[in-house]
Amino acid sequence: MIDFTFTEEQELFRKAAREFAETKIAPHVPTMEATNRGWDEVVKELAEAEMFAVTIPEEYGGLGMGYVARLIALEEIARVSVATAMMYQVFGLGIEAFIKFGTEEQKKKFLPKFASGERLATVAVTEPSGGSDPKGIRTTYKKVNGVYVLNGRKCFITNSHIADAQVVLAVDEDNPDAFTTFIVEKGVEGFKPTHEEHKVGMRGCNTGEIEMKNVTVAAENVIGGEGKGLKVAMAAIGDVGRGGMVGCALGLQQACLDASIKFSNERILYGKPISNLQAIQFKIAEMKIDLEAGRLLGYRAAAMQDKGERSSNEFAVAKYYTTEAAQKAAKMAVDIHGGYGCMEEFPVTRYLRDSFVLGPSAGTSDIMMVIISRWALS
Amino acid sequence: MLNIVVCVKPVPDPSIADKLKIDPITKSLPRLDIPLVINPLDSHALEAAIQLKKEYGAYITVLCMGPPSAGNIVRECLALGADKGILLTDPAFAGADAFATAYTLAKTIEKNGPVDVVFCGMASSDGATEWVGPEIATFLNLPVVTMVREIVKDQGDEWIVKADYEHGYRKVKLKLPAVITVTRNINQPKSLSFSGILKARGKEITEWNREKLGIPAERVGLRGSPTYVTEITHLESRRKVEILEGSLREKIERLVQILSDAGVA
């Protein structure tokens, strides 16, 4: 028998996450939109609400609540601020590398501080040459006298300027087939965040470039073992990264639906609310269908992840479906709002802009299709 | 250590108040198909208990009467900081008025063991009679102070509280054990925390029915309710706008006239 219901605890968790998003995150959204800043404030709120601790095991100071809980939190945060959800999801990516591949020493050193929000993690894989083909990266490392020297540049890195520990993928300078991931800590010589991106949407979500010039990394900061970097990067992005984007997309879809229902019940045309018109009803129905289907895909994959099963293919399907649906929902929400849908006083304009950033993050829809077709054909 | 009981009522979610339908026969709100939340003033009652627990240590028992689905309300109270939950659920309890509710709650408190303070919200957001707290006190033969906005002295067994009174407040000295009903001014309830939700895993929720309480069927639910709702009407609140024109003096005179007609000045 398949049980599609959330547990009482998960429902409570959703309630807590919703209350948090509505009371603690929503007040920051106007500043984030107006200034493309505000991340320090929302990160502080996330830390105080124990959000960073959700997936971290209890023995390392976390809550050990798992990935369904993470998806619930992401969905509720994204319903209010996709920008905040995006940062939160990528902090989770960084954390995941430590949970899955960290040595006991690395876990003890970093995870309790990640759980409390005292330190922040991120993953830096993408380079100007792309992110979905990690073998094409140009950031190099060279082993010199027992330490590693890194050189290169990463771009489109979420939390680039605020993370304290970045999990950086690099290729061996002397061996193009050897990839290793390193923990690069803020403040080390030669490492610096450089350009800050101004994205079309998700304003206030920190995204930028990092530069490494002869950065020395101790052997104890290799994560996942020398030469096993691709596995670390792909595991973090494959399950947790795609899963995170599903949460962002579901939250945005719900926000589009909520805004559309509210507006269509209030906007009077021909003497009646426009929600009485079939053209509007069908758009709302389509949004609802996509949201329900997306939730089934996403939470199923997260439930598999909680059981320790491989879920990257299932998340690829969910990521494709929900991010495409979010773009569709945002367009329909703007359409339902008519002229008001072009005015920034209405949140649907933000939803539309945010929806376009969902697609490329953690792999474009086309890349998802490649992964899904490989899965189907294998 | 204080033994505190907090009475919590599951009420229809106020955020969907416009979707509620009243049963035309019983004049009550069917609670089976609508999301239930903690009665807002009961959240303040629970927070008062939690603050005492943090300050001096206490054991908090939450009592909740409602359908089985109200179990999640009890679980939420445990996540917020209560130690034990008792869910009173039985089809026989359905349709209870304030009197039958208070009787059932009082009998539960008696059965549960010694108590120092019973906290209730001043009123529920749906029934709003403000009777349950005082009636519990009557059934338990305890003193009661209603509409408490501040606990001034909370040590020993003689407390001093500030309670709302018309346009001001009164300071009341009361001897424990006692029943206290609170207003929203007493505190700002804390939000649910994730670690609180996890801690609730190990806490006990007991379900009791009428038989377990050992009380006769004619004292509970609709049968045990001496009061009933005869009629319910919707109140429409209409706003009227009048733009005052003329000189400043004319406008002031007109404004004074309007306020005077409205009985304000």
Structure explained in plain terms:
The complex is a heterodimer of chains A (378) and B (265). With 378 residues, chain A is of the alpha+beta class. Chain A has 11 helices and 10 strands. Chain A has 3 domains: 8-120, Acyl-CoA dehydrogenase/oxidase, N-terminal domain (Butyryl-Coa Dehydrogenase, subunit A, domain 1, Orthogonal Bundle), CATH 1.10.540; 122-226, Butyryl-CoA Dehydrogenase, subunit A, domain 2, CATH 2.40.110; 231-377, Butyryl-CoA Dehydrogenase, subunit A, domain 3. In chain A, strands 1, 2, 3, 4, 5, 6, 7 and 8 form an 8-stranded mixed sheet that branches. A two-stranded antiparallel sheet of chain A has the order 9-10. In chain A, a hairpin with a 2-residue loop joins β9 (268-269) and β10 (272-273). In chain A, α7 runs antiparallel to α10 (347-358). Chain A is globular. Chain B has one domain (2-219): 3-Layer(aba) Sandwich (Rossmann fold), CATH 3.40.50.620. Helix content of chain B is 28%, strand content 25%. Chain B has a 9-stranded mixed sheet with strand order 9-8-7-10-6-1-4-5-11, sandwiched between helices. In chain B, α3 packs across α4. Chain B is globular and about 70 Å long. Chain A binds chain B through residues 8-9, 11-13, 15-16, 19-20, 23, 49-51, 53-54, 63, 65, and chain B through 71-72, 75-76, 79, 191-195, 197-198, 200-201.
Give a topology summary:
The complex is a heterodimer of chains A (378) and B (265).
Chain A: H1 8-25, H2 29-35, H3 39-48, H4 66-80, H5 82-101, H6 104-116, E1 121-124, E2 140-144, E3 147-158, E4 165-172, E5 175-185, E6 191-196, E7 207-217, E8 222-223, H7 229-266, E9 268-269, E10 272-273, H8 278-306, H9 312-336, H10 347-358, H11 365-377
Parallel strand pairs in A: 1-4, 2-4
Antiparallel strand pairs in A: 2-3, 3-7, 4-5, 5-8, 6-7, 9-10
Helix pairs in contact in A: 1-4, 4-5, 4-7, 4-8, 5-7, 7-8, 7-9, 7-10, 8-9, 9-10, 9-11
Chain B: E1 2-8, E2 10-12, E3 36-38, H1 40-56, E4 58-65, H2 71-80, E5 84-88, H3 98-112, E6 117-121, H4 132-140, E7 144-153, E8 158-165, E9 168-175, E10 178-182, H5 194-199, E11 204-208, H6 210-213, H7 248-261
